[in-house]
Specification:
The chain is of the alpha/beta class. A hairpin with a 4-residue loop joins strand 12 and strand 13 (255-258).
């Protein structure tokens, strides 16, 4: 039964720990991750605040911003974009140009404008445009099937795929108009998913915060790149690729990108950089590029020198306040309004420089958590409250410091889940320690109860912090009971037989004494000394002492019959009772003390017990006890008895019967 209870208790504890871990990891850990990411950001290049040049030297943003929209009045004809693209193809010559936008319709009111735009982008051999997969099914299946085939033939990657189960959640694409489709040579996915870096949809961590990038997108059996991966491929002359469940590999370059394959995504955590004026990369307004193009066409000096963009990666994006349809801001760990184009630029920087976060595996975090929990439990189990609390706090804050250091060096470790589990372990450990100590106390109480009165023990426990020598004067009744002829009887019996008789005798006497509110003060060989009136307060302590002595005699008669049948010797007892003032309290030394009573009252009770031998009686009481109990007992007075240690004679009484 105890094993079953232990098993059930263990299962409950394990389930509780799992539940706490699940809640913390799901709802708190992402926030802790965001905090650490935000406060451990690095810069791609030192900022030049005077020139407002900052961020990576490899990726530059050209943003259609409020300044641009104010001059050219959005929405504009598509041919207006041609100024941007002509600037780069004629003058700037960047290595890669990325158009971070989705085009799904034609301008039916201005077909010539569309035609001019498509002819312009067709001139590029290094232009990447965006595409967007969709969770919705094709409205027209026949069109969808034809488009999927054309899209795969033109844009799918040639990858040696070793992924066991490809994620397959997309059902269609946002289709490009045919002229646009035919004009571009490269595209890349602009799809971004919010959620935690473990990529587990079931974790319910989909909190609309974007933390990861999908370099490789699976769609209907084909693999397609993101804008960032496509830019990397073009920069490196489209190297051979291999992909498995852990890495995207480029064997010719001896380079690989670590990722995680989930049920819906192949994801890699983004390593963000410090923002300056809302961006982490060097940024120019599109209107300045367009004005520069106009100036160059006229032979005038450009607003922005084309040389700044030579051999760079240029991302053309939009970031205009809400209401224009050009607001592409997202919520990331470092900003609630992070421009989407800058997120794409960050993903590009990550892959072209191999600048990734190193996410420690889940099993490592679990081992660290378990080891910490065991350490906390051990400390609390074997150290006192102050030391265990101090060491536990050192472990918790030490771990938080280590995790912060890890993030500073780009190592992602669980931040808050282990400390929470340490705190839970601390609570459980203290609870367990409390239970064990209570059990130990109960065992001690049970064991000590065999050596002292339970009431004395309770008094000691109640005053555990104020134990000391001393006591008080009180009126009590003292009872002595002694076995007659015990010494001679023991000479004819073995030690074991003597022990058996004594143990049985005392076992029967103890509950009788307790029944009448008495406490056994001590066993003296074959004698017992009991006190009535302290520490149990009882105004009828004299009468109860007499009743107790009388019942003890009756119990001995029963034992005599039993022992006779067992062939054991017959024993008789004598009882002496006296009432009077005593000193009651702790007597002894500071290192060892005993709760007892001392005084002439005690001595007289002992003398009365011994006088039973002289007068051939069984229970004698003093005159003081008689005065307290005379209405309830039948007695024979024994007059003028000389008591050893007393200067005058006194009357004592033999109790014949107690009247109920």
């Amino acid at each position: 039964m105890n094993k079953l209870k232990f098993a059930i208790f263990s299962i409950i504890i394990i389930l509780a720990l799992y539940f706490v871990h699940f809640l913390t990891y799901t709802f708190v850990e992402p926030k802790a991750y965001d905090f650490m990411v935000k406060h451990s950001l690095t810069e791609k290049l030192p900022f030049d605040k005077n020139k407002q040049v900052y961020g990576s030297g490899d990726v530059i943003l050209v943003m259609i911003d409020a300044k641009t929209a104010e001059k050219y009045r959005w929405p504009w004809k598509r041919e207006t974009n041609c100024k941007l693209f002509e600037y780069f193809i004629k003058y700037a010559h960047p290595k890669v140009v990325i158009h971070d936008s989705i085009l799904t319709t034609l301008d039916k009111d201005n077909p010539s404008s569309d035609e001019k735009f498509f002819k312009t982008i067709n001139k590029f051999d290094n232009l990447i445009v965006g595409f967007m997969p969709s969770l919705r099914s094709w409205v027209v299946n026949d069109f969808g099937q034809k488009y999927d085939k054309s899209f795969k033939d033109k844009f799918a990657l040639n990858v040696e795929n070793e992924i066991k189960v490809l994620p397959d959640i997309y059902s269609s694409l946002m289709p490009m108009p045919e002229p646009y489709f035919n004009s571009v040579k490269y595209n890349g996915s602009v799809s971004l998913f919010p959620g935690f870096i473990d990529g587990n949809l079931k974790s319910y961590a989909m909190d609309e915060i974007y933390r990861t990038h999908e370099y490789l997108l699976a769609y209907k059996g084909g693999l397609y790149p993101s804008l960032a991966l496509r830019a990397f491929l073009i920069m490196n002359n489209n190297p051979k690729m291999q992909v498995d469940n852990s890495y995207l590999k480029f064997p010719e370059m001896n380079y690989k990108v670590k990722h995680k394959v989930t049920s819906y995504q192949i994801l890699t955590p983004i390593k963000f950089y410090k923002l300056w004026n809302g961006y982490s990369h060097q940024t120019f307004s599109a209107v300045d590029i367009m004005d520069s193009y106009d100036n160059l066409q006229k032979g005038a000096a450009p607003v922005i020198k084309p040389e700044l963009f030579k051999d760079k990666i240029v991302i053309i994006g939009a970031n205009v306040p809400a209401g224009t349809g050009l607001n592409d801001n997202r919520n990331t760990p470092i900003s609630p309004n992070h421009p989407g184009a800058d997120i794409q630029a960050t993903a590009i920087d990550n892959i072209i420089h191999g600048d990734f976060l190193n996410v420690l595996p889940k099993w490592f975090n679990i081992i660290i958590t378990l080891l910490g929990m065991l350490c906390v439990y051990g400390i609390i189990r074997f150290y006192d409250l102050f030391k265990s609390s101090l060491f536990t706090l050192i472990i918790i804050f030490g771990y938080l410091g280590i995790s912060a250091l890890c993030f500073y060096f780009g190592i992602v470790i669980n931040v808050i889940t282990p400390p929470v589990m340490f705190v839970v372990t601390m609570i459980l450990a203290y609870t367990h320690k409390f239970i064990l100590e209570n059990r130990s106390k109960e065992k001690v109480k049970s064991a000590m109860g065999k050596y002292m009165s339970e009431d004395v023990m309770k008094r000691v426990i109640m005053n555990i912090d104020n134990l000391g020598l001393g006591g008080k004067k009180a009126v009590v009744t003292v009872l002595f009971a002694d076995i007659r002829g015990f010494t001679s009887m023991s000479e004819t019996m073995s030690a074991q037989q003597v022990s058996e008789i004594l143990n049985e005798y005392f076992t029967e006497m103890e509950p009788i004494i307790s029944k009448y509110n008495g406490i056994i003060n001590k066993f003296i060989g074959d004698a017992v000394m009991a006190i009535f009136g302290e520490p149990i307060q009882d105004k009828n302590h004299a009468l109860n002492a007499v009743k107790c002595g009388y019942e003890m005699l009756l119990k001995v008669k029963e034992l005599q019959k039993k022992w006779a049948e067992e062939g054991k010797p017959k024993i008789e007892i004598g009882v002496g009772i006296n009432t009077g003032e005593v000193f009651v309290g702790n007597i002894g030394s500071v290192n060892r003390m005993e709760y007892t009573v001392i005084g002439d009252t005690v001595n007289l009770a002992s003398r009365l017990e011994s006088y039973n031998k002289v007068y051939k009686t069984k229970m004698l009481i003093s005159s003081s006890t008689y005065e307290e109990t005379k209405s309830f007992i039948d007695v024979i007075r024994i007059s003028d008895v000389e008591i050893r240690g007393k200067s005058h004679k006194m009357d004592i009484y033999e109790v014949l019967k107690v009247i109920n």
